[in-house]
(wild Malaysian banana) hypothetical protein
Amino acid sequence: MGAQKSIHARNAKIDFNVDLTQKLCGALLFPHIRQSSNPFSQVIARLSIKHPNLFGRNEKLDVLWDKGIDDFNILIAFRRPRPDWLSQQSFTIQHSVAPEIAVHGLPVDHFTRSGSGGVNLSRSSVGVDFSEPSTSHWSSKTSIKFEHVRPLNNDGHTINRDMDGFPITSSGRSYDNMIVLKQESQYAIANDDRFTKFNFQMEQGLPLLSKWLIFNRFKIVASKGFKLGPTFLVTSLTGGSIVGDMAPYQAFALGGIGSVRGYGEGAVGSGRTCLVANGEFTIPVTKELEGAIFMDCGTDLGSARYVPGNPALRQGKPGFGVGLGYGVRFNSHLGQIRVDYAINAFQRKTLYFGINGVGS
């Protein structure tokens, strides 16, 4: 549900877009499997403002504001035009507040859901992105930003320890500061019968001041899909690791959609390293409808004990999980409607409902 309005000012068209959607319709359709006791916890309002010619030289200004019941995010981006053969620059300011469920959430119902652990994160950042000119198959982006992270309790008050009395921040204070240099490269090639994608991300915490986080974090995602007769098989492998200073909220979390289905968000575990494998086999039924069979597995490779405070071990998370199931995919004008029915290693079942492309 949304509305869009364009305003012409000094030969520039300013686009306003207001959208009210629900990220996971299953919160209303399937109340027994929702992540929160509040059926509107996933409702989100989005306001988008775009100015394509801010100072009369094709400078672009984007303002995006998202608001949910438990979280909100505001992003301001300013881009100046540059020749195509030079890297494109984007200056960004962002502020968000959201529950930290992936690491500090409490697993319930045999790890099928994750409840609140009383920890929320307020993040503020300012930085600049440099997007390199793309080649036929490669693209890359470099960014540097200052980030300020402050833990909050459910009442909005600043905290520095979790419900068990363990530190939430790396500095030991009520906040963490860091300068993060990030490099991301992506390779993609595709045709009607197959595709190959490779994504590499590396983040480096720069030691400009004392007690600022110094770390190196990398993540690699490789995926491949190909036709088998009328069917299509997609496989992916994700791995990552972090060394140096870290706060618990920086750990790699396993479990949930996009990771290991059949488990709640972060309910498999969280560690300094991770390895996740996914496989999905889709079978066309009609032009718009597909059936799917999938299997996911993930492990923290025994690294949970190296996360400060051992949050995953204290919460009894297994550190390894396998989920398998089946689902349907329906392509509509709203986007791709996905329904997945998954079972985890504890023989507990979870139903996921989502729409890809809504609100994007």
Q: What stands out?
A: Residues 54 and 325 are 50 Å apart (CA to CA).
